[in-house]
Design goal:
Elements lengths: L12 E5 L2 E3 L3 E3 L3 E8 L9 E9 L2 E6 L6 H12 L8 E8 L5 E17 L11 E7 L2 E8 L2 E7 L1
Antiparallel strand pairs: 1-2, 1-7, 3-6, 4-5, 6-9, 7-8, 8-9, 8-10, 10-11
């Protein structure tokens, strides 16, 4: 496959939680940035030094139509958020994979030590014919990126 002539589309992806695939219509928050601290140097008034500090990321945001029969993912969210800090929070690794048209993984992101921090449902409106959407936000420690090139995996680690 010529990588320069074929760019992936973002609508064909899958999410894996505890080894099982979970269907979502939207995944956002896959980002990372390096924070910068400004330091003023004594005697030098023309500029400030901008020094790198730590990397940080946003919450991983998952959106899908509400599933009436429930799921292990929703049970995990409910128990984590409802119990507060009465019991230890159970963290799990969550993977998001971008697929090609044949279902082969092109790029995957693995979010380590993820746990739910927010659950919400879209507004319910009697005058609109729209699906009820549930949104789950997950905090995580860090993520790794793995890219598939010609069947061989090349891992780019961002820790």
């Amino acid at each position: 496959m010529d990588l320069q002539s074929k760019y992936p589309v973002s609508f064909y992806f899958k999410l894996s939680f505890k080894g099982e695939d979970a269907a979502f219509q939207e995944v956002s928050g896959i980002s990372k940035e390096l924070s910068v601290e400004e330091v003023v140097c004594g005697g030098e008034n023309r500029f400030k030094y901008r020094l790198p500090t730590t990397a940080s990321g946003q919450n991983l945001v998952l959106k899908r139509a509400i599933i009436p029969e429930g799921s292990e993912l929703i049970d995990w969210c409910s128990s984590t958020i409802d119990e507060g800090l009465a019991n230890p929070i159970t963290a799990h690794d969550v993977s998001v994979s971008l697929l090609d048209e044949e279902g082969m993984v092109l790029v995957s992101w693995t979010f380590y030590n993820a746990y739910p921090v927010k659950y919400s449902v879209s507004d319910l409106k009697s005058n609109e014919n729209a699906l009820a959407i549930e949104t789950i936000e997950l905090a995580y420690t860090y993520f790794e990126i793995a890219q598939e090139v010609s069947g061989a995996s090349i891992a780019n680690l961002f820790t």
